Amino acid sequence: MNLDDIQGLLERMLGRIEVLIQAGRRSEILNERYFHHMFSWEVGQLWQARNGDPSRDMWHDLFLAPEAKTSAKFRRKGITLGDAAATRTNAVGTGRSGNLDFILKTSPLLCVEWKGPKLYTATSAFEVFLKLLNQPQDSIKVFAAIITSCTSGGRGHLDAAKR
After folding, report:
1. Is 158 strand, coil or helix?
2. What stretch of H or E contains 62?
3. Per-residue pLDDT tens digits for 95-152
4. Cα 143 from Cα 128, distance rounded (Å)
5. Residues 6+ apart with CB under 8 A from 36
6. What is the pTM of this model?
7. In degrees, to the nearest 5, what angle opens at C-alpha 37 toward C-alphas 159 and 157?
8. Other residues' Cβ atoms within 10 Å of the Cβ of residue 130
9. CA-CA-CA-CA torsion for 65, 66, 71, 74, nearest 10 degrees?
10. Of 43, 52, 117, 143, whose CB neighbour count within 10 A is largest?
11. What is the DSSP letter of 43?
12. In contact, 71 and 134? CB cutoff 8 Å
């Protein structure tokens, strides 16, 4: 499994979310966990299609590690946007280990973090990047976000998500 596979999987998920929203079911997507479950299901489907051996599904090899502990420690309250030195001093290497939403045991490792369905804050995105960037240098890092809180793009939602 590689980055192209993940991109295709994310595109299938996005298509599914679009269908749900067009059907008036946005309110049923309560939180980010819906995306987590869709993602793990898609990974399982791809694994099964490639492996073909029903006795060796992705759980046999524990290929997908949800809520994987980070090796580095973090402290949310120590994050200072715009001040890298203060953040390094007060947020990184102190506090407790975080969790990555998923690690896929590929070679190199594939690390995935999710945000959505509501718009995330700059601080919460920064925290995700700290977790991802503190993974092994050769690992593939994916920040996936599906934002569905505003269908019109009004009130600066699109600009805020881009920032």
Report:
1. helix
2. none
3. 888 899 999 999 999 999 999 998 888 888 888 998 999 899 999 999 998 888 665 5
4. 8
5. 66, 101, 102, 114
6. 0.84
7. 10
8. 19
9. 170
10. 43
11. H
12. yes
Q: Are 16 and 38 in contact (CB under 8 A)?
A: yes
User: Could you report the per-residue pLDDT of 136-162, keeping only the tens digit for each?
Assistant: 999 999 999 888 866 555 666 666 666
| Greatest pairwise CA separation for the chain in angstroms | 51
Q: Which tokens is 12 given?
A: 């299938």
Cα separation, 59 vs 94, whole angstroms: 33
- Residue ranges of the domains in the chain? 3-162
Distance from the Cα of residue 150 to its chain's centroid? 20
First-to-last C-alpha distance (Å) of the chain: 30
Contact indicator for 53, 60 with CB cutoff of 8 Å: no
